[in-house]
Design the sequence.
Protein backbone atom coordinates (compact mmCIF):
# COMPACT_ATOMS: atom_id res chain seq x y z
CA UNK A 1 0.00 0.00 0.00
CA UNK A 2 2.06 2.92 -1.30
CA UNK A 3 5.71 3.90 -0.93
CA UNK A 4 6.91 7.27 0.30
CA UNK A 5 10.04 9.20 1.21
CA UNK A 6 10.96 12.49 2.92
CA UNK A 7 14.33 14.23 2.78
CA UNK A 8 16.07 17.05 4.65
CA UNK A 9 19.57 18.22 3.83
CA UNK A 10 21.71 20.09 1.30
CA UNK A 11 19.92 21.19 -1.86
CA UNK A 12 19.82 18.56 -4.58
CA UNK A 13 17.76 17.71 -7.63
CA UNK A 14 14.65 15.64 -6.88
CA UNK A 15 15.87 13.01 -9.30
CA UNK A 16 19.00 12.38 -7.23
CA UNK A 17 16.90 10.38 -4.76
CA UNK A 18 13.69 9.62 -6.68
CA UNK A 19 14.98 8.58 -10.10
CA UNK A 20 18.72 7.89 -10.16
CA UNK A 21 19.11 5.30 -7.35
CA UNK A 22 18.77 1.68 -8.43
CA UNK A 23 15.74 1.24 -6.16
CA UNK A 24 14.43 4.81 -6.02
CA UNK A 25 10.78 5.73 -5.70
CA UNK A 26 10.20 5.51 -9.45
CA UNK A 27 11.34 1.88 -9.46
CA UNK A 28 9.41 1.20 -6.27
CA UNK A 29 6.25 2.11 -8.16
CA UNK A 30 6.45 -1.18 -10.08
CA UNK A 31 9.12 -3.23 -8.26
CA UNK A 32 9.17 -2.50 -4.51
CA UNK A 33 11.47 -4.79 -2.57
CA UNK A 34 9.91 -4.64 0.91
CA UNK A 35 6.21 -4.04 0.26
CA UNK A 36 4.13 -6.68 2.02
CA UNK A 37 0.68 -5.47 0.93
CA UNK A 38 -0.01 -4.89 -2.77
CA UNK A 39 2.48 -5.26 -5.61
CA UNK A 40 2.25 -2.22 -7.91
CA UNK A 41 1.88 1.43 -6.90
CA UNK A 42 0.18 2.71 -10.03
CA UNK A 43 -2.77 4.75 -8.70
CA UNK A 44 -1.06 8.12 -8.85
CA UNK A 45 1.93 9.88 -7.35
CA UNK A 46 3.01 13.22 -5.98
CA UNK A 47 5.94 15.25 -4.76
CA UNK A 48 6.01 18.36 -2.58
CA UNK A 49 9.10 20.50 -2.11
CA UNK A 50 10.27 23.72 -0.48
CA UNK A 51 11.86 26.68 -2.27
CA UNK A 52 14.33 28.98 -0.54
CA UNK A 53 12.56 31.79 1.32
CA UNK A 54 9.05 30.33 1.00
CA UNK A 55 7.67 28.24 3.87
CA UNK A 56 4.71 26.97 1.82
CA UNK A 57 5.66 23.98 -0.33
CA UNK A 58 4.87 23.48 -4.00
CA UNK A 59 3.20 20.25 -5.09
CA UNK A 60 3.06 18.25 -8.31
CA UNK A 61 0.50 15.41 -8.27
CA UNK A 62 -0.90 13.15 -10.95
CA UNK A 63 -3.44 10.33 -11.08
CA UNK A 64 -1.32 8.30 -13.53
CA UNK A 65 1.57 5.99 -12.63
CA UNK A 66 4.80 7.90 -12.11
CA UNK A 67 6.41 6.04 -15.01
CA UNK A 68 3.61 7.18 -17.36
CA UNK A 69 4.15 10.92 -16.83
CA UNK A 70 6.54 12.23 -19.52
CA UNK A 71 6.96 15.55 -17.69
CA UNK A 72 8.20 14.13 -14.40
CA UNK A 73 11.77 13.25 -15.49
CA UNK A 74 12.36 16.87 -16.56
CA UNK A 75 10.83 18.19 -13.34
CA UNK A 76 12.96 15.86 -11.25
CA UNK A 77 16.09 16.83 -13.17
CA UNK A 78 15.84 20.61 -12.71
CA UNK A 79 13.96 21.20 -9.42
CA UNK A 80 16.49 21.53 -6.59
CA UNK A 81 15.50 21.66 -2.94
CA UNK A 82 16.72 20.99 0.57
CA UNK A 83 13.48 19.34 1.70
CA UNK A 84 10.79 17.29 0.00
CA UNK A 85 8.19 14.55 0.45
CA UNK A 86 7.20 12.21 -2.37
CA UNK A 87 4.88 9.21 -2.67
CA UNK A 88 3.56 6.64 -5.14
CA UNK A 89 0.05 5.31 -4.48
CA UNK A 90 -1.65 1.94 -4.34
CA UNK A 91 -5.30 2.79 -3.63
CA UNK A 92 -7.14 1.10 -0.77
CA UNK A 93 -10.36 1.20 -2.79
CA UNK A 94 -11.28 2.29 -6.30
CA UNK A 95 -12.49 5.89 -6.52
CA UNK A 96 -12.91 8.78 -8.93
CA UNK A 97 -10.85 11.24 -6.87
CA UNK A 98 -7.91 11.25 -9.28
CA UNK A 99 -4.90 13.31 -8.32
CA UNK A 100 -6.76 14.75 -5.30
CA UNK A 101 -6.21 11.40 -3.58
CA UNK A 102 -2.47 11.36 -4.31
CA UNK A 103 -0.08 12.35 -1.53
CA UNK A 104 1.37 14.57 -0.37
CA UNK A 105 -1.58 16.30 1.24
CA UNK A 106 -0.84 19.82 2.43
CA UNK A 107 -1.81 22.53 4.88
CA UNK A 108 0.29 25.65 5.44
CA UNK A 109 3.92 24.53 5.66
CA UNK A 110 3.03 20.85 6.18
CA UNK A 111 3.21 17.91 3.78
CA UNK A 112 1.71 14.52 4.71
CA UNK A 113 1.56 11.00 3.32
CA UNK A 114 0.03 7.72 4.52
CA UNK A 115 1.39 4.27 3.68
CA UNK A 116 -1.11 1.64 4.76
CA UNK A 117 -4.87 1.25 5.10
CA UNK A 118 -7.56 1.92 7.68
CA UNK A 119 -9.17 -1.43 8.47
CA UNK A 120 -12.92 -1.43 7.83
CA UNK A 121 -12.86 1.89 5.99
CA UNK A 122 -15.04 3.93 5.86
CA UNK A 123 -17.33 2.73 8.61
CA UNK A 124 -14.61 2.10 11.18
CA UNK A 125 -13.48 5.74 11.19
CA UNK A 126 -16.96 7.28 11.25
CA UNK A 127 -16.88 7.82 15.06
CA UNK A 128 -13.65 9.83 14.75
CA UNK A 129 -15.25 12.42 12.49
CA UNK A 130 -17.07 13.83 15.52
CA UNK A 131 -13.91 15.74 16.41
CA UNK A 132 -13.89 17.50 13.02
CA UNK A 133 -16.06 20.54 12.20
CA UNK A 134 -18.47 20.00 9.32
CA UNK A 135 -16.61 22.53 7.18
CA UNK A 136 -13.42 20.47 7.46
CA UNK A 137 -15.22 17.27 6.48
CA UNK A 138 -16.79 19.00 3.50
CA UNK A 139 -13.37 20.37 2.54
CA UNK A 140 -11.61 17.00 2.32
CA UNK A 141 -9.59 16.80 -0.88
CA UNK A 142 -10.63 13.20 -1.55
CA UNK A 143 -12.92 10.44 -0.28
CA UNK A 144 -10.14 8.08 0.77
CA UNK A 145 -8.83 6.97 4.13
CA UNK A 146 -5.59 8.95 3.76
CA UNK A 147 -7.49 12.22 3.28
CA UNK A 148 -9.50 11.68 6.47
CA UNK A 149 -6.40 10.63 8.40
CA UNK A 150 -4.72 13.83 7.25
CA UNK A 151 -7.72 15.83 8.47
CA UNK A 152 -7.30 14.25 11.92
CA UNK A 153 -3.56 14.99 11.98
CA UNK A 154 -3.86 18.54 10.63
CA UNK A 155 -6.58 19.32 13.18
CA UNK A 156 -4.08 18.54 15.92
CA UNK A 157 -1.42 20.66 14.23
CA UNK A 158 -3.85 23.58 14.04
CA UNK A 159 -4.50 23.17 17.76
CA UNK A 160 -0.79 23.56 18.51
CA UNK A 161 0.41 19.95 18.83
CA UNK A 162 4.02 19.22 17.97
CA UNK A 163 4.35 17.04 14.83
CA UNK A 164 5.35 13.90 16.72
CA UNK A 165 2.46 14.24 19.15
CA UNK A 166 0.00 14.91 16.32
CA UNK A 167 1.05 11.73 14.52
CA UNK A 168 1.36 9.54 17.60
CA UNK A 169 -2.00 10.51 19.07
CA UNK A 170 -3.74 10.04 15.71
CA UNK A 171 -2.20 6.60 15.20
CA UNK A 172 -3.25 5.30 18.62
CA UNK A 173 -6.74 6.78 18.23
CA UNK A 174 -7.25 5.21 14.80
CA UNK A 175 -5.76 1.88 15.88
CA UNK A 176 -8.27 1.75 18.73
CA UNK A 177 -11.20 2.50 16.39
CA UNK A 178 -9.98 0.23 13.58
CA UNK A 179 -7.76 -2.58 14.94
CA UNK A 180 -5.53 -4.15 12.33
CA UNK A 181 -4.98 -0.88 10.46
CA UNK A 182 -1.58 -0.14 8.92
CA UNK A 183 -0.67 3.43 9.80
CA UNK A 184 2.73 4.48 8.54
CA UNK A 185 2.53 8.29 8.44
CA UNK A 186 5.10 10.72 7.06
CA UNK A 187 4.99 14.45 7.86
CA UNK A 188 7.35 17.38 7.26
CA UNK A 189 7.40 21.17 7.33
CA UNK A 190 10.80 21.42 5.66
CA UNK A 191 12.65 21.61 8.99
CA UNK A 192 11.56 18.42 10.77
CA UNK A 193 10.38 14.99 9.67
CA UNK A 194 7.95 13.00 11.80
CA UNK A 195 6.96 9.46 10.89
CA UNK A 196 5.26 6.41 12.37
CA UNK A 197 5.92 2.73 11.86
CA UNK A 198 2.69 0.84 12.49
CA UNK A 199 2.10 -2.31 10.48
CA UNK A 200 4.48 -1.70 7.58
CA UNK A 201 8.15 -1.03 6.93
CA UNK A 202 9.97 2.23 7.68
CA UNK A 203 13.67 3.02 7.28
CA UNK A 204 15.94 6.01 7.78
CA UNK A 205 19.42 6.97 6.71
CA UNK A 206 21.59 9.84 7.90
CA UNK A 207 24.13 11.16 5.44
CA UNK A 208 26.92 13.68 5.00
CA UNK A 209 26.46 17.39 5.65
CA UNK A 210 23.53 16.84 8.04
CA UNK A 211 21.11 15.10 5.71
CA UNK A 212 18.45 12.52 6.46
CA UNK A 213 16.06 10.43 4.40
CA UNK A 214 13.06 8.58 5.87
CA UNK A 215 11.36 6.10 3.57
CA UNK A 216 9.14 3.04 3.30
CA UNK A 217 12.19 1.16 2.05
CA UNK A 218 15.83 1.92 1.15
CA UNK A 219 16.47 3.36 -2.29
CA UNK A 220 19.90 1.69 -2.45
CA UNK A 221 21.98 -0.96 -0.70
CA UNK A 222 24.04 1.41 1.44
CA UNK A 223 24.69 -0.25 4.84
CA UNK A 224 23.84 2.97 6.70
CA UNK A 225 20.09 2.41 6.37
CA UNK A 226 18.40 1.50 9.67
CA UNK A 227 14.99 -0.14 9.97
CA UNK A 228 12.57 1.47 12.41
CA UNK A 229 10.91 -1.05 14.74
CA UNK A 230 7.17 -1.55 14.42
CA UNK A 231 5.01 0.60 16.71
CA UNK A 232 7.56 3.43 16.74
CA UNK A 233 7.46 7.21 16.33
CA UNK A 234 10.41 8.84 14.55
CA UNK A 235 11.15 12.57 14.83
CA UNK A 236 14.19 13.85 12.94
CA UNK A 237 15.93 17.07 12.04
CA UNK A 238 19.03 17.53 9.93
CA UNK A 239 21.12 16.96 13.05
CA UNK A 240 19.25 14.41 15.16
CA UNK A 241 16.97 11.36 15.06
CA UNK A 242 14.75 10.37 17.99
CA UNK A 243 12.82 7.08 18.16
CA UNK A 244 10.03 6.56 20.71
CA UNK A 245 7.74 3.54 21.20
CA UNK A 246 4.07 3.81 20.36
CA UNK A 247 1.58 1.85 22.43
CA UNK A 248 -2.01 0.92 21.81
CA UNK A 249 -4.49 2.42 24.22
CA UNK A 250 -5.66 0.08 27.00
CA UNK A 251 -8.98 -1.59 26.26
Sequence:
Amino acid sequence: MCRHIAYLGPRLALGELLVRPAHGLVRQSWAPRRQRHGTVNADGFGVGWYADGDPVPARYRRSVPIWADPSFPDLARVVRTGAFLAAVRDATQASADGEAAAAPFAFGPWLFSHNGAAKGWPGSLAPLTASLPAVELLSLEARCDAALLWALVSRRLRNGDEPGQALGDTVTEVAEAAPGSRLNFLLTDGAVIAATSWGDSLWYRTGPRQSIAVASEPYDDDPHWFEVPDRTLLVATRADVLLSPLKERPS
Remarks:
- The first helix runs from residue 15 to 18.
- The mean pLDDT is 93.
- Helices lie at 15-18, 25-28, 72-78, 134-138, 145-158, 163-177.
